[in-house]
């Protein structure tokens, strides 16, 4: 089976269930919630976010688009581990004996799906933010917002690819999803607040992803956006290559 046909097969599998729909709706809901909270608490003494009347505050607001990444990585992990959980991996590899091509097709498919998730989250963020900011007399202007939006979309797409790579490595669906989410969104969150350790947080996958998405945490220093993007893409590529290697080498049972 050619790579093009394999990608079409993966697309059919993706849309074969409603999981993709529930996950994209969840990603959009997360983005909406964070956007609403950020605008509603602007100027509050309890808010850790920079004021929206500043360029950094405006960039921070639209970096919330990257919130959808938590479900993009789940989508990618399920797309890979589902083959093992539902025992469809054997007929999949029989139909396409070149196992590496199967993994590559999944990576491409979920890269596209992750990009679509990012675009959907962007639409939600702008639909909420634009009229609300206008009512407050605030305007986006330039202020680096386009770069932040693009970075957030790319970050979500890379998270989906990372999910496929982790799924190919671990194969167990629950372990892949729970382990990845706990590490990225719990353990790294704790480490980013530990003195001395947080100085190196920008080198972690989550820190690189935040830099790419234009996030501006107050407790640590991140790389520039392009640097974070390169580092995060390198992490995803490393997991993808490792997953492809093991998918080819080890037994499917």
Number of domains: 1
Radius of gyration: 19 Å
Low-confidence stretches: none
Strand residues, percent: under 5%
Q: Give, in order, the helices and strands.
A: HHHHHHHHHH
H/I helix tally: 10
Q: What global shape is seen?
A: globular
Task: Describe the 3D structure.
By secondary structure, this protein is mainly α. It has one domain (3-249). 72% of the residues lie in helices and 0% in strands. It has helices at residues 3-14, 19-40, 55-62, 69-85, 89-95, 99-135, 145-170, 173-191, 205-213, 225-249.
Key phrases:
single chain; 253 residues; mainly alpha; 10 helices; 72% helix
What is the element layout, followed by pairings?
Elements: H1 3-14, H2 19-40, H3 55-62, H4 69-85, H5 89-95, H6 99-135, H7 145-170, H8 173-191, H9 205-213, H10 225-249
What is shown here, in short?
This protein has 253 residues and is an all-alpha fold. Helices cover 72% and strands 0% of the residues.
């Amino acid at each position: 089976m050619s790579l093009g046909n394999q990608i079409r097969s993966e697309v059919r599998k993706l849309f074969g269930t409603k999981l993709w729909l529930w996950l994209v709706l969840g990603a959009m809901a997360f983005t909406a919630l964070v956007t609403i909270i950020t605008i509603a608490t602007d100027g509050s003494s309890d808010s850790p976010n920079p004021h929206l009347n500043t360029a950094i505050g405006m960039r921070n607001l639209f970096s919330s688009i990257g919130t959808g990444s938590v479900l993009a990585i789940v989508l990618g992990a399920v797309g890979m581990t589902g083959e093992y959980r539902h025992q469809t991996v054997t007929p999949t590899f029989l139909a396409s004996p070149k196992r590496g091509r199967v993994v590559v097709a999944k990576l491409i498919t979920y890269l596209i799906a992750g990009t679509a998730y990012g675009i959907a989250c962007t639409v939600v963020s702008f639909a909420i933010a634009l009229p609300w900011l206008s009512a407050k007399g605030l305007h986006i202007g330039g202020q680096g917002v386009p770069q932040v939006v693009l970075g957030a979309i790319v970050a979500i797409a890379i998270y989906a690819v990372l999910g496929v790579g982790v799924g190919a490595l671990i194969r167990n669906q629950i372990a892949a999803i729970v382990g990845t989410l706990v590490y990225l969104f719990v353990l790294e969150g704790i480490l980013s607040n530990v003195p001395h350790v947080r100085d190196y947080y920008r080198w972690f996958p989550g820190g690189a992803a935040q830099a790419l998405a234009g996030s501006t945490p107050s407790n640590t220093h991140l790389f520039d956006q392009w640097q974070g993007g390169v580092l995060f893409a390198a992490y995803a590529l490393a997991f993808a290559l490792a997953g492809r290697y093991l998918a080819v080498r080890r037994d499917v049972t």
